[in-house]
Each structure stands twice: as structure tokens, then as C-alpha cells.
Amino acid sequence: MQVSQSVKFAALIAVVTTLYFLARGLFGDGGEAVDSAAPARFTVVTQTISPQTWRAEIVVRGRTAAERKVVVRAEISGAVAATPTPEGASVHTGDVLCQIEVNARQAELAEARAAFDKARLDYNAAVKLHEGGFRSETAVAAAKAALDLAAAGKQRAGIILSKTKISAPFDGVFDRRNVEVGDFLSVGDACGTVIQRSPFLVIGAVAEKDVAKVSKDDRGVARLATGQTIEGVVRFIAAAADPATRTFTVELLVPNEDGALRDGVTADFTIFAKERVAHHIPRSSLTLADDGSLGVRTLGPDGDVRFTSIRLLGEDQSGIWVADLDDAVQLIVRGHDFVSAGQIVEAVDVHSLKTGQGPDAGATP
């Protein structure tokens, strides 16, 4: 039987269609092959960060203070006979500040000297008589004891007499006199206050977070409430914190040869810590690891993401200073919160974005 041309064409279409669906079932179509291909790499923005020289600046609130400030007190009792040194005068070691009435103390010293002279004569005579066999060794020993006692009495009387003069213990300024002529001083009562002119101190309190940055002999500059600016070095850092404020006392030693500084003036001083190598990074590049440690994500030479823990050192208006990064690093500044350590990514330098080149962070080409 002869088959028509239209039937033959329909049969051909049916065979081709059947073969097409069999092929899709066995091998899949091209669209699924494209969809199952490896996804494009995530794109991040990086910035090359090189190490720089960094010096911490710690600002401290404090006050000026004399390195040596002594209240000079009476060591014997008596009425004030004279005040030869006026308040505010420069004094040298030994200058008399307050004179206590001598009264009978001069006579007591004269009596003690006479007793000493007599005891010395008695002892010398006893020695000579002993050499001639007319005195025993016991008598010589007794004479020697009497001589020693008389010597001690003379020395004591001389010391008591000298205490009638209350003197400056060191060179400085007689800052304040507490008594006037006729006042009665008991033992321990104050004659006045002596302040050493130079050097001076600026004393403040450093917070816990900053105390590790400060070292002895670090340079500091203080600005006083009087408008003066002075420069010195750190001479002391407390080893223990104040239990009330949890701060550490720090002292800046400054020269005051001209005597211009005054005790107790409010001051703000800046301590410049020793130079060290650090990296200056944007604040936005900080991130946290799974364990909560603070750090940054950087790019390895093979395009792999790495996490590095860092220590914060300081900050300024343009960023923060950190430690523990090695040499120059490719810091991920955008997209770091969307990648993890070990992931291979594509990188675009931040400078190319500023010039209008390169895709945005997170784009998939």
C-alpha cells in the first residue's frame, strides 16, 4: 500500500520528537549544565596597609606639685623670740626661719661644759696616779665613766640650744609662716612651710586602658590653667591602682629654675609614649571571629581570606592604630563581613573604585 507524503512527514516529526525527549532524559539539557557549574567568586574591596611609626599620646588631667614640700616644726617648746625670714623669701639650707627664746638653755650649756672640763681633769689625774701605783684600775674606770657622762651632757645641752633655731632643711622658698613673735610653740608645732623651687612635678591619674602605654622617661608637655606650657619627663608610674577610681598615679618631672611654677595649679598634660611600629586602618574594617576575638580579614597571596587577631593601640579622626599585623597586608575593607577564613575571593583595590574602575564589593562577575 502506498503511504502519502503527509503521513511520512508526520511520522518523521514523531520520531525526532521521541529521540529529543529520550536524549534529555539520558543526558539532561544544556540549561541544567550551566546551572550546575561552579558559582562565580565573591568580590571584595582591599586596601594595602603598610606599617608606620606610631607614638601614643595620652592626655592626663592633673595639678602641679613641689617635689619637696616640708612643714618645719619645733623640736623643743618655748616662746617665739624672732621671725627673721619673711614669707615668700628665698632661703638656703640652715637659714633661720623661727627663733625660740633661749632662756636658761645657754646657762645649761655652760654648766655642762664646766662639768665636762672637771671630769676630764679628774680622769687625767686618775690615770697619772694609776701609773704611779696610787690608784686602782677601778678608780680609773669610774673616772672614765664620769668623763663620758659629762661629755654626753655637754652634747645634749648643745643640741637643745641649737633647737631654739628652726632652720630651712633645703634651698627653696619660705612659702608660709604659721607663727608670730610671742606665740608659744610646743614640740611638733609648725613654724612654717618650705617649698623646693626646682624641679617641680605635674601629678595626674592614668586610666587602666592607657597605663601600659606609659613608660618611665617618656616625654610630656603640660598646659597649666595659668596659660604656661612646660615640658618634662615621666619619673614615676604607680604599680597599684587607686581602689576608688581604678586609675594609676603618674608624675611628670619638670624644671623650674626661674621659680615661675606654683604648687597646686590645675594642668592638662600629654604624655608621648615611645615610638613603635603599628598599622593605621579604617574603623569599619574591624570584625569579630567566631570565638569573639577582635581582628581583621586580609587577603593571602592566593586570593584566600585570612583572619588576624589585633590589639587596639590608639585612634584618631581618620582611623585606628593596631598591633600584631605583619608587614604590608591586603586588608579587606568592604565585604569582610560576608566572607570567611579560607574562602577564595576576587579582589578589587579601593583606589580603583575611587577612580571609577572595578565592580562594587560583593558583586559576582
Q: DSSP helix count? A: 6
What is the CATH class designation of the largest domain? Mainly Beta
Topology, number of strands:
24
What is the fold-level CATH name, i.e. the topology of the largest domain? OB fold (Dihydrolipoamide Acetyltransferase, E2P)
Major sheet attributes: 6 strands, antiparallel, barrel
CATH homology group of the largest domain: RNA polymerase II/Efflux pump adaptor protein, barrel-sandwich hybrid domain
Portion of residues within helices: 10-25%
Strand order of the largest sheet: 3-12-15-14-13-16
Task: Tell me the domain tally.
Answer: 4
CATH architectural name of the largest domain: Beta Barrel
Shape: elongated
Mean pLDDT: 86
Notes on the structure:
The chain is α+β, with helices and mostly antiparallel strands and 365 residues long. A hairpin with a 5-residue loop joins β18 and β19. It is elongated, with a radius of gyration of 45 Å. It has 4 domains: 5-35; 43-52 and 277-354, conserved putative lor/sdh protein from methanococcus maripaludis s2 fold; 58-67 and 195-276, Elongation Factor Tu (Ef-tu), domain 3 (Beta Barrel); 72-194, OB fold (Dihydrolipoamide Acetyltransferase, E2P), CATH 2.40.50. The chain has helices at residues 5-27, 30-35, 105-131, 137-162, 208-211, 350-354; strands at 43-49, 52-54, 57-66, 69-73, 78-82, 90-91, 96-100, 165-167, 172-177, 184-185, 190-195, 200-207, 219-224, 229-237, 247-254, 266-272, 276-281, 287-288, 294-299, 305-309, 311-316, 319-323, 329-334, 346-349.
